[in-house]
Amino acid sequence: MTQELIDLRNSIVEGRYTDALAIVDELEGMSKKAILRQIKSFLKILLIHLIKNQIEQRLTNSWAASIRYAILEIQDVNLKDNKKFYYVNQDEWQIYLEDEMTPAIADASLEVLNGKLKRKEISQMLNKPQLILNVSELLTMTYNYTNRELPDVIDDYLTQLPGGEDWSNS
């Protein structure tokens, strides 16, 4: 990115505005790609912990914290600087869920039941429609609640997951 900024500066100084605008477009694309990569990373964390929850039918403090963290980070990163628009709109999550599902299952297989199950076994055991519903409901919250309200709303939602009631009472 440093080279692009140098090129941008030189283009402006030399009056090559068409070149400068092309560099601005390139920088904007690089920035959006980096943000989407971040969002996908947090989405994968969310999926991993919801997979573990579904397969093991329990919820730990650590998993709850990871789910909450992932959702809060998605909310923060997804909102553009103008605070009015999003990088991923509410109706655009399906492709990202599809992209991250297999890697999330693979990573979750290392942890679920202390790594006793293979990726394929976990994939067969998963209720994927329920998993996608849970993820979708959590993602929807990022559009409907402020960052101050969201932690409490997430915690309330977590009590509805398998083992969530025991988690909230502990």
TrEMBL record:
The lineage of its organism: Bacteria, Bacillati, Cyanobacteriota, Cyanophyceae, Nostocales. This is DUF29 family protein. It holds the Pfam family DUF29. InterPro entries: DUF29 (IPR002636).
